[in-house]
Amino acid sequence: MSASLAEKLRSIAGTPHVLTGIDCSPYVLEGRTPEAVVFPGSKEEVAAVLGVAAEVGIPVIPWGGGTRLALGSPPPRLGLVIGLTRLNRVLEHVPGDLTATVEAGITLGGLQAALGARGQWLSLDPPHAERATLGGILASNASGPRRHLYGTCRDLLIGLTVVSADGSIVRGGGKVMKNVAGYDLPKLYIGSLGTLGILVEATLKLRPRPDEDRLVVARFERLGDAAGAARAVMASDLIPSALDVVDAAAAEALGLGTCGGALLIGVDGIREQVEWQCGELRRLVEPLGARAPEVRDGAERDRLWRGLGELGRAGIADVAAVMRWGGLPTRIGELMESAGATARRNGLRAALTAHAGVGISTAVLAGTDADAVVRTLDAWRGLVDTAGGQAVLEWAPLAVKERVAVWDEPGPAFRLMKAIKDQLDPSGILNPGRFVGGI
């Protein structure tokens, strides 16, 4: 990076908030080191930095807590990293309207603590809440087990402020749940991985904190029985907040002991309702083969949910790759069993989990044989494709990403996606090459 460009960045954000040279090493991504890292302190500073980047044509990579940066194809060049952690304020919280407007650099844990002081919460539970920033969560559309009842980022977003590729500050949506009719443009940016603009502020829909929050753990002799019990829960009158199936390896990693598979069922709400649902769940799953279902609460409940979210990188030794796929909820058990058998045939280990109610599965592959890893991932993608689903390689070393596609083929929708990218980022400086189809 030229000295003049570095000086411009320092004049915008302040010298202490601009890193160059060896100081950029904590921000290496896919083996590439950024030319500079800048931490703006306001959305106006973000806009000014993007304006400078647009002038010289340097690529820009938004960086929040870094928990989801492994998602995406390797970048062709890591130019300027814009860190958003200084944008970490709650700008407005209106408890009576159940809404809050916050800056994108606030961590989910910090936001939940601020909202909890007023008896409310944001009903999102992706992994690494203590590090994951709201902007990163929205940009990657991250979620956790509670998406079963509460939905994803798109369901909770009311308004959004974005800095576009040319440095313009663009606002969309509103500050209340009832909004004017028309195109819901803010949702266009959800899951776009920062390729259309840098998210700097968001207005969100909140909920009152539940009186009780419990986790029912049901273990089975067979994975197929656990998946069958999940279907029975979905067909019942019960309203769980989470419904996750885990295979034997994932259950063991979570400290659930030896079993063929397990069903993790979250229940929250008022005390009487929660107690009734826990009792009904026991009566429902025991005849289906569940071994003495247990109710977990407090720290043990939190440990299990946290362990489930972190299984891909912390809970399994020798992790070689993590793949996520979406498909029909009715085929969850079949896909998990087939994927596990494929890994074993290739001499590898796999731990598989699924949000059973929405058909989203995560497969953690472990082992050291690189050729076997590539064969297994390709076979998994084939299984999912045959079942009518979609797969994405969520995490893998660069050597694996060079041999296995991160994304499925985009299909006919790619033409529209590319046209949107060209309109919003004509110079192609926003996180280039990382999204579907090389966008």
What does this protein structure show overall?
Strand 5 and strand 6 form a beta hairpin. This protein has 3 domains: 240 residues, Uridine Diphospho-n-acetylenolpyruvylglucosamine Reductase, domain 3 (2-Layer Sandwich); 85 residues, Alpha-Beta Plaits; 91 residues, Alpha-Beta Plaits, CATH 3.30.70. Helix 7 runs antiparallel to helix 12. With 439 residues, the chain is of the alpha+beta class. The strands form 4 sheets. An 8-stranded antiparallel sheet has the order 15-12-14-13-17-18-16-19. The chain has a 5-stranded antiparallel sheet with strand order 5-6-10-8-9. A 4-stranded mixed sheet has the order 1-2-4-3, with helices on one face.
Write the layout of secondary structure elements.
Layout: H1 3-13, E1 18-20, E2 36-38, H2 43-56, E3 60-63, E4 80-83, E5 90-94, E6 99-103, H3 108-116, E7 120-121, H4 134-140, H5 147-150, H6 153-156, E8 157-163, E9 169-173, E10 198-205, E11 207-208, E12 212-220, H7 223-235, E13 242-247, H8 248-253, E14 261-269, H9 271-285, E15 291-296, H10 298-309, H11 311-315, E16 319-326, H12 332-345, E17 349-355, E18 360-366, H13 370-386, E19 390-395, H14 398-401, H15 413-424
Parallel strand pairs: 2-4, 3-4
Antiparallel strand pairs: 1-2, 5-6, 6-10, 7-11, 8-9, 8-10, 12-14, 12-15, 13-14, 13-17, 16-18, 16-19, 17-18
Helix pairs in contact: 1-2, 7-12, 12-13
